[in-house]
Amino acid sequence: MQISIKEVLAVSILAVMMAIVGTCNLRSAPPAESTEADASVLVHVAGAVNNPGVYELTYGARVQDALAAAGGIKSEGNADTLNLAAYVFDGQKIYVPALQRAEQTESQTNGLININVANLSELQTLPGIGPAIAERIITYREQTGGFSSPEDIMNVDRIGPKTFENIRSLICVE
After folding, report:
1. Which residue, 20, 45, 69, 109, is most buried by CB atoms nearer than 10 A?
2. What is the model's pTM?
3. What contacts 24+ positions apart, CB below 8 Å, involve 144-148?
């Protein structure tokens, strides 16, 4: 019995598709390795929530449960960026960004991004600033009360003099 190239190709494509679907399904269900003995997870809830912090939730909890544990989303919080039905996992950080306010856009009328109020997507418009570094900028300003000068952005992990030189003319603090 001889197998044709088309049959080998079809089986290969099917195997790849099954692997992709299997990988996607891993994110949609709680981790299978959990047992009765470790029936809780620790989740860090941050951003525009009433009581940011680390919360212990039962195994199988959802993002909406984590937000409820943190006292709910503030009025300026943007829940539309989150999948409230997603399962949480141990060690996860859930960040609720703030809605863009009118005063935030004022800082951009002169073409500069105010790093003290810019949201995640605005920060990502800066050269060399992706989602991870943008989140670090927001976390830093929340922990320190904001930036007092544009140079202070170099205190954020992974922003050094080279990155600062690339964004210096694009940012401001107010």
Report:
1. 45
2. 0.43
3. 146/116, 146/173, 147/115, 147/116, 147/173, 148/173
